[in-house]
Write a structure and sequence with these properties.
This protein folds into two domains: 313 residues, Outer membrane protein transport protein (OMPP1/FadL/TodX) (Porin, Beta Barrel), CATH 2.40.160.60; 30 residues, no CATH class. It is built from four helices and 16 strands.
Amino acid sequence: MKNGKVLCRLVAFGVLITTGALYGQSTSTTSDNFTNIGSSGAGFQKLWVGARSAGLAGGFSALADDVTSLYWNPAGIARLQGISAIASYTKWHSDITHNFVGAVMPISERYRIGLGLTVVDYGTLRSAVIDPGASDRDANAGTFNANDLSIGVSIAGALTDRFAFGATVKYLRNAILDLSADGLAFDAGSLYQTDFYKLKISLALTNLGSDRSFQGNSLSILAKDDKLNTTAQLLDARLVTSDFALPLSFRIGIGTDVFQGEDPDQKLNIDLDFSANSDGPERYNAGAEYIWNDIVAFRAGYAFNHDQMGLGLGAGFKYKSEDFLGQIDYGFNTTKDLGDIHVVTITANFP
C-alpha cells in the first residue's frame, strides 16, 4: 500500500510537470505578440544563484530553504536555524564569472536577517577603433573592464507555522569603462505550506525599482558644430544616455516531497516554477531532487521557453556533526549557443 501511494503521487506530479512543460514549449515569442524582449538592463539579476538551483534548472523557488533564498525568495530564510553562510562560484563562457556570498542569522525566535553580495566580472575586454581605414596595429586601442554588483539586506519572518514573508532592499550597480548606472531595488516574497500533500507555494516579486541611466566622465566630449560656432573651435558637449528599466519578474513556484516523510531515509522533492517577466516571455522551470539519508543529493531539471537555458544536472554532499553542518553542491547547465555552465557552492551552518 505504501508503494502504491508513492506511485500515485509520482504519476500526479509527473502529469503536472509535463502539462506545464508542453504549455511552455508552445508559447510563442514572435514580435506579433511580444515586443519587450531586450527592453531592460541589469540583466545579471536574471542569472540563477547557487549550484542547487542550477541542478534543478531554475525549478527551485518553492524548495529554496537555504541562504540562496536571498535571491530566489527572501521568505525562504525565515526558518533557517542558527547562523548560515554560503559562497557560490559560476563559470560562464568568455571568462565571465558570477560570484555570490551571503549570510543569514536569527534576530528573534520568528525573524531572520540576511545579507547577500553578487559580483559579475566580465573579464578584460579589448577596446577597438571603429575605422575601416585603420591598420591592424591601430585596431587594438587597449583594454577595459566591466562588472556588475548587487548588495542586498533581507528580513524575513515565520508569521505562522505555515506562512512566511520576506523583503529585500538592494543596491545595484552596472559599470563599464568609467561609466556606471546605480540605484536601489526591492524584492518581496511569501511562502505557504498547504494541507494538500504538504504542497509549498512560493510567490516572489523581484527587481522592483525606478529606471536608471549610465553616467561618467566619458560622456563629456569636444564637438564641432558649424551652425553654432563659425570659428571652428571645439565646443564642450555631453552625450546623453537613455534610461533603462530593471528586469521586473513575478515568479510562482509549487513544490513538495513526493514521499511525504513516510521514508525517513529518502526524499524526492519536485518543483515547478512559472515566471512572468517584463522583458521576455513567460518561462517554466521544472526540477526534481532525490536525497538519500540527508547526506547525498542528485538533481535534474529543465528550463522551458528560455532562449538559452535548457538541461540542468547536479549533485550535493552534506556533512553533519553536533555543532556544524557543511554542504558542497555542484550544478551543470547546458545552453543553446553559449556553452556549458558550471556552478560550485559551499555552505556552512552553525546551529
